[in-house]
Amino acid sequence: CDSEDVLYVGRRYITFHAATSGKKTLRFPKKCDVYEVYEDKCYGKNVTEIEFEAYFGETKMFKIIE
What we know:
- This protein is mainly β.
- The protein contains no helices and five strands.
């Protein structure tokens, strides 16, 4: 993540908290499937990065499946 947002990274989960509103990009070291837990939404399959819009103060929790 190139922005000033807050990330907590675990083995299978990434929690993202937006410090600012706007377009965000998360990059991964290898291809994976990415699901957002609270939205129950797939953000990508077999990807090395995802892009999404976030609002100030918004939190997302992504489950990573290799």
